[in-house]
Design brief:
single chain, globular, 4-stranded antiparallel beta sheet, disordered N terminus, Glutamine Phosphoribosylpyrophosphate, subunit 1, domain 1, alpha+beta, about 30% helix, 8-stranded mixed beta sheet
Length: about 350
């Protein structure tokens, strides 16, 4: 059975095949597009009673702006990697998301940024971790891919590379938001009370952003950007800059994840989904559901979600939390956004 919504075809859930139909969580049977992109702005505890109408409007507007930026790149004949970077740059400049300007604070009271991109057509990838003065980490990750012989650069080395590539140093004030600073103070207070290093309200802090795009030539690309976890210590790095964990793209499949990074690293989540598509011939929807709605919850509940797309334009968006900021746009140019568990 099929139906139409904003010009894209939705396929009904087959109870005997789709894990998302029978397991707790939000299944991924979703739209199929000719070309376009899908994005996320983080998964976690997103309660309708706590998200005011004004704030919801702001989130949807930011997601729509990012979708439209990526769409314009594709419409004008750009490669999928162009759309990924264009869309993520918009989200990094928004204070609403845990990436770039809206990044959370570390235990030392700084913003430590991670990002990665991967070109599915060539398997080339670039990533940066632990940078503190780069306004748009996704742009630097692309430069690592295109202008260096390496895949990942970190810390002061990545910042030195940025200066060599003409990327200016951004003042620390650019990244400061009162909301994120308060989150750090709350985390420190809770930690002091417990007497141990803890992840405070971890499921509320998943604000990582990511994009998967399919261009008119049928090429896939994926990218992810994050500020990590509030109150992170010891130079902690999550899954977002790790190719195969938080980001992966090949000729068949592209994935970007958002959630508790340690579990995404241990399970190589992004690659696992694409490997199931490649080696088992599993549909994208089923592969994503099996990993996000079945495999991860056996280890820890409320770990997060992913966005994914295959080379035929099928989109999957499973998450095992109460919500995930997400959206997609196809060749017809209609941007659709979602936040809660609504179909």
């Amino acid at each position: 059975m099929t139906g139409w919504l904003t010009g894209v075809v939705w396929t009904a859930c087959a109870l005997t095949l789709s894990v998302g139909c029978t397991r707790q969580g939000t299944g991924t049977t979703g739209p199929q597009i000719k070309w376009g992109l899908v994005l996320h702005g983080g998964a976690g505890t997103i309660d309708r009673t706590q998200l005011t109408p004004q704030l919801e409007t702001e989130y949807r507007a930011a997601l729509t702006e990012a979708l439209q930026a990526g769409y314009r790149a594709l419409r004008d004949g750009g490669a999928s990697i162009d759309a990924v970077v264009a869309a993520i740059t918009i989200l990094e400049d928004s204070p609403l998301f845990n990436a770039g300007r809206g990044a959370v604070f570390t235990a030392d009271g700084i913003n430590s940024l991670d990002a990665s991109v991967m070109d599915g057509a060539t398997l080339r990838a670039g990533a940066i971790a632990g940078v503190t003065d780069v306004r748009n980490p996704i742009l630097l990750a692309r430069l690592v891919m295109e202008k260096s012989p390496h895949v990942m650069l970190s810390g002061s080395g990545a910042e030195h590379f940025a200066r060599e590539q003409g990327v200016p140093s951004t003042p620390k004030e650019w990244f400061y938001t009162e909301r994120r600073w308060k989150e750090l103070q709350d985390a420190k207070a809770a930690e002091a009370k417990s007497g141990a290093a803890t992840i405070v309200n971890r499921q509320e802090k998943f604000g990582t952003v990511g994009v998967v795009a399919l261009d008119q030539a049928g090429r896939l690309a994926a990218g992810t950007s994050t500020g990590g976890m509030t109150n992170k210590k010891w130079g902690r790095i999550g899954d977002s800059p790790i190719i195969g964990a938080g980001t992966y793209a090949d000729g068949r499949c592209g994935v970007s994840g958002t959630g508790w990074g340690e579990f995404y690293i241990r399970n190589v989540v992004a690659h696992d989904i694409c490997a199931r598509v490649e080696y088992q011939g599993t549909s994208l929807s089923q592969a994503a559901d099996e990993v996000v709605l079945v495999k991860l919850p056996t280890q820890e509940k409320d770990t997060g979600g992913v966005i994914a797309m295959d080379h035929d334009g099928h989109i999957a968006m499973p998450f095992n939390t109460s919500g995930m900021y997400r959206g997609w746009i196809g060749a017809e140019g209609t941007a659709t956004t979602a936040i809660f568990r609504d179909k």
